[in-house]
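COURSE: Structural Biology Practicum
ASSIGNMENT: Worksheet 4, Part C
STUDENT ID: 0417
INSTRUCTIONS: Below are two proteins. For each, the amino acid sequence is given first, followed by its structure token string. Answer the questions at the end about the second protein only.

PROTEIN I
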Amino acid sequence: MSNAIIRSALEGRLKIWADAQSPPIPIEYQNVAFTPPSQARYLRAFLLPAETRSNDTPGETKTYAGLLQVSVCVPTGTGPGAAEQLVTELETLLPVSLRIVVGGLVINITRPASAGSSMPETGLYVTPVSIQYRADTE
């Protein structure tokens, strides 16, 4: 249940930002039907939870950790600038100082957003961005 709360909080923040862009940036979510826009930028969002831990014997307090992986997808042949701009905006949207309290959890971004090596796909230039989080029960 808590991974669902974390997903909702982080993806919700991402969606609000993406919808406010001009033009809005579509997002592909895990296991949700999606048709990529032709010759337009879009994002792919995946929650990658790690092991859940507890520091007390009955397991009443829990720590959830993992990554929000956001892949920035832009058309090929336009250079890296558009992808790099979106990566910078994601770094601002989900900074290390971010703290979200929701559903009995305190969610913190624990490391700066980190862009990986860009990868070509058919018609796309894809840059993965990893945002590490930690969520503790209140």
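PROTEIN II
(use this one for the questions)
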Amino acid sequence: MLDLPIADASVGVLACWYVLHHLPDADVARALGEFVRVLRPGGVLLIGGHVGESSTLKTEGYGGSPMRVFVNLRPADYWAAQVRSLGLTIEAHTVFDPDDEHPSHALFARVPVSPSQPV
């Protein structure tokens, strides 16, 4: 997701679900920038996943399988700010189970269309 082999402005919809929390802080803007690069005007971005404020190393997967993956939880507002900073318009953003131990979010945004651009 840091170097998508996809032409600029060629994708109508891009969904990234429960993945971005594995990126280190230094790579978040690059990944989101790649998403925006490949989306055409009027294109839709859907991201979602775990939210919070912690960073941990996960060493055991579901079912007890060994693994080594970082989980970098960030607040839902962080994701909204990142998406807005890239010029997208947020059409919907919600946090699921905000009082739960493991809340999640879904953010639906769109690449703006200028009056002279076809959709």
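ANSWER KEY EXCERPT:
Q1: The chain has a mean pLDDT of 95.
Q2: DSSP finds two helices and six strands in the chain.
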